[in-house]
Amino acid sequence: MERVNDMLGLPDHDTLYAALVARDPAWEGRALVGVATTGIFCRLTCPARKPLARNCRWFASAKDAQAAGFRPCLRCHPAGATAEGDPLVRDLLARLEERPGHRWSEGDLLALGHDPSTVRRAFKRHFGQSFLGMARAARLRSGMSSLAKGSAMIEAQLDAGFDSASGFRAAFARLFGHAPHQLRQGSDLLADWIDTPLGGMIAIADDSALHLLEFIDRKALPDGLRRLSAHVGGRVGLGRTPVHDLTESQLADYFAGQGPRLDVPVTLHGTPFQQVVWRALQDIPAGQTRSYAQLAAAIGRPTAMRAVARANATNRIALVVPCHRVIGADGTLTGYAGGLWRKEKLIAIERGYA
């Protein structure tokens, strides 16, 4: 059993050094190593040559390592989100950004010298879905934009990079729960795309409130869209309202460090208990975090930690209802449906608001 260093909140030197030598991925986000002879700090998974045990200093965060005078490694990028420490992920995300309309295949990955199964595992570990799935979402975005502007189906299909109308319709059906032509009929709610520095988001709103705001690559997004569509009798279409414009403007200010509070009006679709939890999340200021126990106590239900955690996980209005501000009781970042790498980024952004 590992012994814990009470002062640092980290296991003892021998345990951490063994993890460093093994490049154990279980320690991602939990510990960093500073090398006294170079003045550089790294992830424990860094591919660089391992230092002697006597030259290692251990840190719980990049902030602690930098405060001690260490510089971040240029190979493993320990000051960034976990995903940024993976060269394969960084390379493919950059290529996807350069060519969002390209129809990526396993053949493309092989041509770049990547093993498709390795790529699949890396992206699922960091983002909860495959790289090819992220690429399909990027292509779908362009088709969605075309339909919202009233383009003919064939034009939208070509804009999205799909070879067949059936492929385009199938992708839309998986996302929204019904075919794209139905999205152009009379609707109570309208869906549109919003770009952010952390990826595209789907926003669904009417003229008075936001009903859903999710990152496009969230694994549970299709289910959330289908549930919302069923709630309003399928009357979800493509288009934009003033609430979309307000949401996009406030998100831009938030990411630019100019707007800590996102006060877009929202309609919460959930049980009374879920809505109480979601309202409590909105009361957490940017730059602060809460544990599940603290959140349960705040709503007067101190023994309902598991129910609070479930409500947190089913939040469908990301950022505006800031479920990313809930962390483990020991201060570690727990799971986030939008991806742990995003949670790391969001909390880092909000430190500037504290």
From TrEMBL:
**Which of UniProt's keywords are assigned here?**
Activator, DNA damage, DNA repair, Methyltransferase, Transferase
* Reactions mediated catalytically: a 4-O-methyl-thymidine in DNA + L-cysteinyl-[protein] = a thymidine in DNA + S-methyl-L-cysteinyl-[protein]; a 6-O-methyl-2'-deoxyguanosine in DNA + L-cysteinyl-[protein] = S-methyl-L-cysteinyl-[protein] + a 2'-deoxyguanosine in DNA
Tell me which SUPFAM superfamilies the record gives: Ada DNA repair protein, N-terminal domain (N-Ada 10), Methylated DNA-protein cysteine methyltransferase domain, Methylated DNA-protein cysteine methyltransferase, C-terminal domain
Q: Which PROSITE patterns match?
A: HTH_ARAC_FAMILY_2, MGMT
User: Which branch of life, at top level?
Assistant: Bacteria
Question: What Pfam families has UniProt attached to this entry?
Answer: Ada_Zn_binding, DNA_binding_1, HTH_18
Write down the SMART domains for this protein, in alphabetical order.
HTH_ARAC
Keyword Transferase part of the UniProt annotation:
yes
- Which InterPro entries does the entry mention? Ada-like_dom_sf (IPR035451), Ada_DNA_repair_Zn-bd (IPR004026), Bifunct_regulatory_prot_Ada (IPR016221), HTH_AraC (IPR018060), MethylDNA_cys_MeTrfase_AS (IPR001497), MethylDNA_cys_MeTrfase_DNA-bd (IPR014048), MethylDNA_cys_MeTrfase_DNAb (IPR036217), MGMT_N_sf (IPR036631)
HTH araC/xylS-type domain location is 112-186
- Is the keyword Methyltransferase in the record? yes
Q: Which GO terms describe its molecular function?
A: methyltransferase activity
| GO BP annotations, alphabetical order | methylation
Q: Which PANTHER family match?
A: METHYLATED-DNA--PROTEIN-CYSTEINE METHYLTRANSFERASE (PTHR10815:SF5)
- The protein's name: 6-O-methylguanine DNA methyltransferase
Species for this entry? Paracoccus acridae
